[in-house]
Amino acid sequence: MSKIDIPNHTIFVCDGSKCGKYSKEIRRVFKDKIKDNHLKGEVILIKMDCSDNCDHAPVVSFQPENIWHGEVTERKAEKFFDRYILER
Ligand code: FES
Q1: Are 46 and 12 within 8 A, CB to CB?
Q2: Above 90 in pLDDT, residue 48?
Q3: Residue 64: is the preceding peptide bond cis (ω within 30°)?
């Protein structure tokens, strides 16, 4: 039996009906950061369903740190990636 690849970090980007309006741009920021920093496989990006935080759309979660942010802009997404992934 083969082993499951376990990433160091998982970034969940909400793709529910409210957050979905912004999620493509947010995911693009993370995809570029993962690629530019050669972190493919170490950091994975997952679209998640609505987490009932729609008033704070768009919502992003960093795991296993269990850090959640709402009202995420592209600029904030870049900063969060640096803070939670690169500087840890
Ligand atoms: S659609 Fe993202 S929290 Fe509801």
Answers
A1: yes
A2: yes
A3: yes
d(CA 35, CA 43): 10
Which SS3 state, helix, strand or coil, does residue 10 take?
Answer: strand
pLDDT for residue 60 is more than 90:
yes
- Residue ranges and CATH numbers for the domains of the chain are 9-56+63-86 (3.40.30.10)
Backbone dihedral region of 38: left (phi > 0), alpha (psi from -120 to 50 degrees) or beta?
A: left
> What pLDDT, on the 0 to 100 scale, is given for residue 1?
80
pLDDT of amino acid 88: 80
Rounded to whole angstroms, the Cα distance separating 20 from 4 reads 29
Distance from residue 15's CA to the centre of ligand 1 (Å) = 7
Q: 21 alpha carbon to ligand 1 midpoint, in Å?
A: 10
Write out the two tokens for 11: 């970034």
